[in-house]
Amino acid sequence: MKRHFAPTAKSIAWMPFLIGLLCLWSSLASAEKPAKAAVASAHYLATEAGHEVLANGGNAFDAAIAVSAALAVVEPASSGLGGGAFWLLHRAADDHQVMIDGRETAPAAAHRDMYLNENGEVNRDLAVNGPLAAGIPGHAAGMVHLAQNYGRLPLSESLKPAIRLATEGFPVDEKYHSLMSFRAETIRRWPAATEALLVDGENPPVGHIIKLPDIANTLRLIAEQGFEGFYKGETADKLVKGVQEAGGIWTHADLAGYTIKEREPIRTSYQGYELVTAPPPSSGGVAIAEILNIVEPYKISDLDPVKRIHVLAEAMRRAYRDRSIYLGDPDFFDVPVRLLTSRDYAAGLRASIRLDRATDSNSLAGFEDSPKGTDTTHFSLIDTDGNMVAATLTVNLPYGAAFMAPGTGFLLNNEMDDFSAKAGAPNAYGLLGYSANAIEPHKRMLSSMTPTFVLGEEKVAVLGTPGGSRIITMVLLGLLDFIDGNGPVSWVSLPRIHHQYQPDQISAEPDALTADQIAALEALGHTVNVRERTWGNMHGVMWNRQTGEVEGGSDPRWPSGRAIVK
Q1: For residue 355, is pLDDT > 70?
Q2: Sign of CA dihedral 246, 250, 256, 261
Q3: Annotated catalytic residue: which of 341, 374, 376, 394?
Q4: In the chain, what are the domain boundaries?
Q5: Residue 171, burial from CB neighbour count under 10 angstroms (0-12, 13-18, 19+)
Q6: Does the first or last residue of the chain, that is N or C, have fewer Cβ atoms within 10 Å of its Cβ?
Q7: What per-residue confidence (pLDDT) applies to 413?
């Protein structure tokens, strides 16, 4: 017998309340996923490429391929197929988090003293210019790995926007022109790079259309053949021939033997937030965890600005000191990650900090024999399923090694300079290194790239930035601003300060500090170096888990960047 529900006066009276509960439940359920997708990158054309692939049925990982490839075309000063990258991933379906390590590796013929002259000093020109400065690139392998293991679409779809940009051309922007002014003289040493990126041998004006048919062909080969389309066959032949004829040491075996690594991220907590960030061979995650562990008991949000900067600088100083001694490729060196990221270790470091006096970096314990800009680029994105990607890509210095193998269409990196060419000798960013980061065949050089997720009960942040040695401190300041309750427009716009152990000084962007603040810091014993230029190019997105709202922010320091939510 079927039973029929007959409403009573009492049940009818409860209906508005029950309907309200149902609506509330429905709104909370809808907030379990972002209401819209967000992409924030260093170039509006790359941001649009990411959204194009999302609109065509791709997920965040397909969009990451599209953005990575588009940046490789339109922003050759900062990244490219001749460079490397870290892609930090969050897969919403199973809460899986991993870092895809596409860092460059040293060629098999590389050795510890390869950049030293007859006097035992580093030959800076060999270390940063030309094919001898280039590690075996991982950018292309990373895109293939993303497509095969995390994406929905074939590479032919994800790479389509970048191939179109390379074929039809893109306008030179302010960043391209500005950074080229520093590297044009070096680029003119090599005909292929000169022909592709300059105009009659000169820096092209803003607005000039650059077409790169050779890189379009390289991308088509990757789309058709995957890994073999870059690391074997036609492209590999061009790379090895061009590199060796110009004095480099790459071989076909170096390219064919390149492998992507999946790394377990660094995880730490701060004031109730979980941080998921880059592990070695990045130094960033370890350094940020160490800094946060040192400063957490100070409750720095409650400190006056001078005390806050002082405490942060002291923590930065100690983390960068440890970076120089203990950090390197974990496949070659036993990096003491658990020790460096422990709160007990941080407590020991904190004990030597005085609130009334700056520490002399030279007084920090160390070892003599070990274990003794606006380069790079970053994008952040989230899709409507809650998948997230924070990716930092690089060729190291602006326009990398300034060398292009004929017929390839892309510049090679000069990441070999991120190794320690000589114990205790600073690299192009003034960073020191010892045996943990010494040059060895097939080894990955230490990096500062720090793609990061900050996960809270109510809000989630995805952020990162380029900037060489300053990447770590920029990400630190951005995530602290997020934890203070601010959105991505605020994180990416913040005035920036930095300390990296050596040189022993607080660096500050113009107008980051007032005259009174500088005087107060100097009274504590700090040297303050106010730089003429700003630095970094941060891009971030934020998801409000309660409302589903998504926001994006793109660094105002370079107008070509763009954050789009739709």
Answers
A1: yes
A2: negative
A3: 376
A4: 38-262+378-403
A5: middle
A6: N
A7: 97
